[in-house]
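re: ur question from the group chat, yeah i did fold both. here u go
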Amino acid sequence: MANIATIDICRKDLFTPVEELQKEYTEAQVARVLRLRDMYNWVLANPDAKDRQFIEEELARGFAVHKSQAYSDLAVIKALVPLLTEASREFHRWRYNEMIIETYQMAKKRKDTKTMERAATSYAKYNRVDVEDETALPYHLIVIQPFTATSDPTVLGIKPIPNRQKFVEDLLAKYRAESADIDDIEYEEADLEEEELFGSYADFEEINEDE
């Protein structure tokens, strides 16, 4: 299981009990899933938190990870959030329908026609049963434009060059003659103190964290 990507494990087992995780994955993989689970819950509780705050929080929780690993965890969670949110949304849609149907059935047993009507109306509105299905596009009627490869420029309205090969050879001879005085030189490293001019990479990383 060592070659399974962390993102794939989390998509499937982010909230799986620890005992089951230990049966299927390595100790290191289980430890990371549990860490990501903890930080995922923190992100849900702090939706407005900046990336820098996420990194500081993970490092402060004593997970014994380096800063680069914390950034890697952040990337995984950013990829997970839309997927898990969508799954959660689908669950709530299903749950809503179950609750409406249950309400309808209970009202039916009591012969409560008003509640039955409201439940039926809510169900129909939520599932958009009053909206007609979209008409499928007739893709089978679309005619594919035929194309034929050609080297003839006249199909584009371009006048062909007579004796093209000689024209090319003449141009090559002309430009070779004009560049005869150009000397090739070896590449040399620029003698620049880049850190003095542009700052260090660490400074750049620090600026990104503050944004």
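okk and heres the other one u asked abt
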Amino acid sequence: MKRFVKLATSDRRFWILLYVLLALMAVVSVYEGIGNGIVWSQDFQYDASCALINGYDPYDLSADFDSRSLPDIANLRGFYSYYEGLGTPQRMEANQFPSLLYILTPYALMPYDMARLLWVMTNILCTAVIIRLLKKTFMAKVDERLYPVFMMLMLAGTPWRNQLGVGQHTLFAFAFFLLAVHVSGCFGSAEEEGREDKGKGAGRIMASGLLLSLSYLKYTVTAPLAIYFIYKRKWKEFIISLLPHLILTAAAAAVLKESFASMLIKPLKVASALAAEGGIDIGVLTKGSPLGLVITGLVMVFLFAAAFLLPEGNDELYISVAVLLSLVMTYHRTYDFFVMIIVFGYYATGRMKTAEIIYLITTLAFFFVLRIFHENVISLTVSGALYYACAIAFVVVTVDKCRRAKGT
């Protein structure tokens, strides 16, 4: 079998056929994703951001939502009337911290028709950034012929298409995370800090920290990934990334006449209502019980511990285990799972090669099979079991490398 695969992949016609097939699938997926995004984008959180920048508490509005008693804000009313016209009335679910809603201010200042179109364009641009920077960072060791295959798989997959169609924030967040990593100099020639003067070094640190700060727009994905900066001992960038959120949270508290603590607690209360409504995450498995929060806390402790104990040179391993755990430690629907593609960067290092086929099957299940079965219980159970097996395998490898490093 291995000999047959080797002969097939060495044939130029094999690669042409594979590229053509995946390109057709990707083009159709992109077309559908853009079309859906232009019409829908219901998860944009435009309404919550619009309320906040106009001085209204989006968390109180979410808790006691009534479309008939909305604040007299033209753009906000335009948002709800648009979806009522489509026969899919919306309600406000402000599960983002105020500092994150402020990131959406440029969009919330314009009418929803314009904002929705601009958000789709932003996500397309962010996709291009992801494709460009994955090859420069965590997937740099992937074979030149295979890298386009993985990118076309990502575009053709249901998670990416739905991410664009419903107007979610993960494309934006993941793109800015990769930008922060690239600018920080963790990879490539930018790592030669000794050749840079102090001014350039300070500018790079500031830029990387601010880019990382923007990546928190989807913090349930990128907060675990941001611990990578601790693994790389990029302390300044990590600290800088937190400062804008402290300042903006304080500003929101002052505007809304609330305490700083309430600006952290209120969005978490809104988010907690969704804890048991994800795909295969811990919240679903624990049915939204407090045990899920305990497990999430333990996962974060593990990632912090690995950041300190994992030896240098394991960038692809650390980011892989962080990605895999981030998608199940908190509420996630399967549209966030397009980031699974990054794990193939670890397999490209030549490690765990026997497990690569299992991970490929798992990825194909989330990208294509779940849609065929409409994410019914059986398909989610099988796909989830494969996913957890892969995640546990990466945890075991990470622990083993930490243990070996400590032993030496």
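fwiw on the second one: The first helix runs from residue 2 to 9. The chain is about 70% helix and 0% strand. idk if thats what u expected
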